[in-house]
Structures are given as structure tokens and as C-alpha cells.
Amino acid sequence: MKQLLSFEYRKLIRSKALYICAIVMVCLNIIGVVITKASMDFINSSFSGMSDTDLQMFGAMDYSGLKYLLSACNGSNMLIFFAIFVTIFVCSDFTEGTIKNIVSRGYSREKIFFAKSIVIGTGSVLFSMLSMLTGFVAGSVAFGVGKDFGGTTVLTILIQLLAMIAYTMMNVLLAVLFGKLGGALTLGIIIPLIYPIIIQLLDLLVVFMSDKSSEVTQDFFSRFTVGTNMTKISVIGADGKDLLFAAVIFFVYIMLFTLLGVLAIRKKEV
Amino acid sequence: MDYILETRQLTKKFGSKLAVDHVDMHIQKGDIYGLIGKNGAGKTTIMRMMLSLAFPTSGEIYMFGKPVSGKSDVKIGSLIESPGIFKNYSAYDNLKAFCVLYGIDDAVIEPILRIIGLADTGKKKAGQFSLGMKQRLGIGIALLAEPEIIILDEPVNGLDPAGIKDVRDLVIKLNQEKGVTFLISSHLLDELSKMVTKYGIINNGCLLEELDAAEMERRGSHQIAITVSDPLKSADLIATMIPPQNITIAGNQLLLNANFDDSAKFNKLLVENGIWVSALELRAESIEQYYMHAMGDGR
Fold it and tell me: Rounded to whole angstroms, how far apart are CA atoms B81 and A270?
């Protein structure tokens, strides 16, 4: 296992896709902050007589390094980056045929799966932390650090990283299932975008079909998605119950994708 | 008899299609075993199962007398279909990556690069290599950890004549100097005959027969073609040495089904009897022709 991990880490370190995605992500984060800052400056100069309450209506008072830190990983950009570099990393062994050199040496498929998952999981965590860091630094320079940088912030960040690992495992699963970059990458991008829509439709269906007197909520299904929970905890001072619920949901998704991934690779002929 | 690699009733089905049909294959230590068969005969599938890349539907594979479970620590090298290499790595870095995977000291890299003739490629990326160079790099990876058996699937496919010779020389060198056993499949049967010590002929998933190179040679027919000034007189003369039914007259040529060693005697007999011999050609039925016969002329 140690040799497999070393082999995979060497590959990760030399992965161009990871660095390209990281550079683009950093640039997008900075550009996002610059655009927001410019917009806010425009609003402030155009409506100089406005009260703080009025400005809050434009969102002009909410921006800070802390806000960017906590919202850095919540968005479709991150999902696309993850789909790209996770899929390229896992599929490369299948497309370049190097998986044959690994399997034929007697390494079990389960070990190969776990080695890949651990290494790319580490990469994803580092990638997410870089996104948070750049968001925080750029946001702090533009708007100030922000208040309420308390103990829950660290906990929130850790739970958000669990969500990123869940997304990573989903992409690892797709890559193992397909083995080919095109299909895995396409689904890795499309699924996180379409899945919430389907869940929302199901929620509406449940509400529509339920008895009005019952206590069915509009988030009957969507409260169990990674996206919904990620959004809930991407704010300053997230509720403790929300954090705990999100952590459980993310953990369950990680376990589910891992289990499906192991089952998929066991049956896979390479 | 102890076999280094053996299959017992090895079978593989893809849906309802029987790709490998109860194959019993036997490879001894030191063999260069040539697995021959047309496209889709099941060669690659057998090799993939031996390497745990594919799962048998039934049957067993034994390596060094032990069942292959997919978790063995057997020193085996392989090159199946296309070489599994990192295209954005140099030859050295490719071998280095697999040294890490196999837990081998990277001191072996330079000697292997020299053996496969890629020592001078420097930082050139493997993706920019010619097909032959990629193939040799694939063999280089297979050579890491000093394997006792190497499985090569169509190793000379797509190579130019120089590349084919390189691979052949490398196989023979490793077999003779280091005692490495080889299992090789190839479509280039005459090329295969230059290195193989044992053959397995496969058709439609069935192993038709296994025979050693000497037996294959013996089974192949031999023909001597002599171009002469007087075919009729020549035929009468040679009929004193071999049965007349082994002599065919085709224009000014005599076609003799006879041992090659007798060709000098025929030549001497004809010349001493005043017949001009303008050409003498030894024609051996190629392994390809024998293979076609074994296949039922490809039907």
C-alpha cells in the first residue's frame, strides 16, 4: 500500500491538470473579488447619501475576507474544477494503460482504489484550502478581514472539506465506472448541476401530492443533498445543528461513493 | 512435468460468446512460447486473464505451480496491447515511477535503458517517441524487478523492420543470458519463428495444439526448385535418388519434395550428366502456411 501511495503521490505532484485548475481557480477568485469591490465602490459613490440599511439592500455591507473564506468552495466553479482534475487523475491510468502495469503486479483492485482515493482526496483538500485562502486574502485586502472569526469558523471549514471529499469520491466513482475521460468528465460536470434540479422537482412533487394538513416541508429531499447543506454552512456563524447535520450528510455520501467505487472496481476488467 | 505457467480448462465468455474455450496451456521455464492465432482467436484474452486484468469464467491459471489469485507476488512482466506508459514523462521518469510502485532501487534504470536502447533519449517525453521506442519502453517497464516470465502481446505490431529486429534480439538475449521465459503473441508468424521455441496454435478460443519449434520445422514441407536446361532428362536422373512422385516438372523447373541436405547431390548429379543448372532454390513451407493448414486454410 505504501508503494502504491508513493506512486500515486508522485503522479499527483506531476499532474498538470491540478496546477492549471489551481491557477485558474485562484485567478477567478481574485477577479471575483475585484469585480465585487469595483461594483461596491460604484454603488457607494453613486449613492453616497444612503444609510447603512439601504446599502445592505445592495449587499454592500456584507463583504469581508471571512465571508469569502467560507463561501469559496460553494459554487459550480469548484465542482467543475473537481470534475476536471479528479477525473483526469483517475482516468489517466486507464487511458494510458498504466493500470495494467499495476494490476498485473498483483496489487488488488481495492488497494488501487483506496490509494487513488486517498491521494486525490488529499489533493482536493489542498485545492479547497487554496481556494479558501485566496478568497480570504483577496476579500480581506478589498473589504477587510471581517468579524466573528470564532471557533465555529474552523469547524465550518473542516465540515466544508468533508463536502469537497464527497464530491471528490463521486468523481472517483464516475472515473472508475467509465474508465474513459470523456464520459466521466461530462457526467462529473453535469450530475452536480442537474441533480439539485431533479431533487427540487421531487420536492415539489411531494408537496403537491401531500395532504395540506401534513408537515411535509419543501425541502423533503433537498435537505439531504450535499449542495443544500453546503449552502447552509457557507455563511458566517452557521447554526450548530446545521453544521452537525451537514457533517453527517457529507460523511454518508463519502461512505456511499466509496462503497460503490469499491464494488465497481472489483468487477472492472482493465 | 513442472510448468512455470499453466492453464487448466481456462474459459472466458463475453455474454453468450465463448472467447476462450477450455484451454490447457503449458509453458516450461526457459521457453519462448509463441501463441499464434488470427484476430479475435482469444490470444489477448488468455494473456489478460493470466495477468489478472480480466476474470476467467471458469478454469484455473497456475504460475510456478500456484493458482493465480491476483494477489501473488510473482515476478512477472508484461506488455499487453499498447504499452502502459506515462506520455508526459521521459523514459527515465517512466521507469522511475514504476520503480517506486514495485519497490525497486532506481539503480536498475540505467542498465535497463541501455538494454532497450533508450539511454540517449534524455528528457524527451515518451509521447514524442516513435512506436518502436514506446514499445521498447513498455518492455523496459516489464523488465523491472528482473521478472522470471514476461508476457508480450503483439510486441512487434506496427514496428519497422529495424524495430522488429531490436525486439527480437532483446527477447533472445534475455532468454539466453538471463533465462527469462517468454509468452509472446504475434501476427507476424515468420518473424515469431525466428525466436520461438514452442508454439501454441489457437483458433476460435480453442487451443488446437502445442508443439515445439523442432516439431513445427519437421511438419513443414520442403521443396527444392531447380531450373535446368533439360527438365525431362533431369527428372529421370533425379528419379534414381528420390521417389518419382516427389518430382514435378513445371516448365524448365524441377520441383522436388526432398530434404534440403540433398540439394548439393542433385546439383552434382545433373552437372556431371551435362545438364546446365541455372538456379537452385530451397523453399520451406513457412510457419504461416502450416498455421493456415492447421486453421483449415483460414476457414
Answer: 11
